[in-house]
């Protein structure tokens, strides 16, 4: 397993290009299963999770070709409606094939994703919504088996705002008979990117980006050509990395509108953030002020940046309270940040972070993608050497992060193992 070795203390300076969004690309690529013919997708990031979704789509019979950031997929000829345990276990987002397969093929057998490091993460709301649309659902031998001659439009109220649930049902409803109304729908930009993709395929969708989405089902969809939005979490991670090192970085190709909650918090912490031609400039401050942060569904502060901002608060002046409201177990990075000298106490959903003058390098290990990112961010400012094990977590969601950081002046290298 690869490791990162980071020698902290270098200011990040220069420009970094933000890649396409992992969490937008996954559902957008899955939507290829809804149409017959070749669709073209631009700005696809080169990531382990994208390779996993390609494997899954190929397993269903999709044909693929592509170069660099452009991928062409023909999902016309579906040969298997089963998403096997091995692929779903590797990546929970595989469950997104459920809605499209039932809608297009009338059936699907999808392995039930288990829990993961950050929480139990059930998919009960995806299943409840499909049932409301007339699907017969059974759980057998660890698999969800869903059947429906043709899904019927329905009014669905999501008890919790769910990104994956909203995406799954958007795709299912696009081919259902009649009108589906999603209430308390997720408003994340990734949901909007998927809705725009479906609209480009001929779907009739209104309200994406608000908490009520209406979908008028159509009989068939056509291929499309679309671009995936920039990755707001990658952008946010680089902003925090620039801030923690007192650096001066321009993020190219990000969408500032998607980053408002983070921008507000960083400004409160004393970091200067200004739009510049083609991007956003982040300039660190000699002293970071402590700010309280509470994760919330979009447009609130993203849970996927909670671990990284905690690393920043670990070296702030004062104390901050970080509250995680989306996942029940997303503080696994705390114990590792403590190994670097951070002073953090956890009480249920709250972490109280008392800023320290400096962090000191140490061997650390991550349990999930964003936890790894927070340890990289902390390692960039920690005195001496930080060795981060299990880099495969970070490879799931950050394209060439060590190369991008090196280009900004960081001292970070990958050791193959
Ligand atoms: N939930 C349920 N039942 C459901 C669905 C969700 O109880 O049927 C709960 C979850 O357990 C969680 C909350 O609702 O407590 C929100 O979960 P959501 O469904 O919104 O999350 P997701 O779709 O599984 C996506 C991202 C995550 C991101 C969350 C929240 C993808 C592939 N994943 O997950 O990204 O944290 O939304 O914004 O889009 C990451 O990239 O590191 C990552 C974990």
Biggest sheet overview: 4 strands, mixed
Q: Which compounds are bound in this model? A: uridine-diphosphate-2(N-acetylglucosaminyl) butyric acid
Number of helices: 14
Alpha-beta content class? alpha/beta
Q: In oligomeric terms, what are we looking at?
A: single chain
What is the CA-CA span between the terminal residues?
A: 5 Å
Mean pLDDT comes to 97
Give me the side-by-side strand order of the main sheet: 22-23-1-24
Uncertain runs are: none
Rg computed from alpha carbons, rounded to a whole number of angstroms: 21 Å
- Portion of residues within helices: 25-40%
Number of strands: 24
Q: Globular, elongated, flat, extended or rod-shaped: what is the shape?
A: elongated
Strand content: 25-35%
List the helices and strands and how they pair.
Layout: E1 3-7, E2 13-17, H1 22-30, E3 38-42, H2 48-60, E4 63-67, E5 70-74, E6 82-83, H3 85-90, H4 98-105, E7 107-111, H5 124-132, E8 136-140, E9 143-147, E10 155-157, H6 163-174, E11 179-183, H7 189-200, E12 204-206, E13 212-216, E14 225-227, H8 232-244, E15 248-252, H9 260-268, E16 272-276, E17 279-283, E18 293-294, H10 306-313, E19 319-323, H11 333-339, E20 343-347, E21 350-354, E22 363-365, H12 369-381, E23 385-389, H13 392-395, H14 401-407, E24 411-415
The structure holds uridine-diphosphate-2(N-acetylglucosaminyl) butyric acid.
Uridine-diphosphate-2(N-acetylglucosaminyl) butyric acid binds at residues 23, 26, 93, 119, 121-126, 160, 162-165, 186, 190, 303-304, 326-327, 369-370, 397.
Features:
24 strands; 4-stranded mixed β-sheet; 417 residues; binds uridine-diphosphate-2(N-acetylglucosaminyl) butyric acid; 25% strand; alpha/beta
